[in-house]
Amino acid sequence: MTRRKRLQNAEKFLVMGHDFQNSGFYRDAAHYYRKSIKMYPTAEAYTYLAWVHSFTGDFTQAVEYCKVAISLDPDFGNAYNDIGAYLLELGDVDQAIPYLARAAKAHRYDKPHFAHYNLGRAWERKRDFSRAMTEYKLALDLSPEYEPAKMSYFKLVRLMN
Question: What pTM value is reported for the model?
Answer without folding.
Answer: 0.93
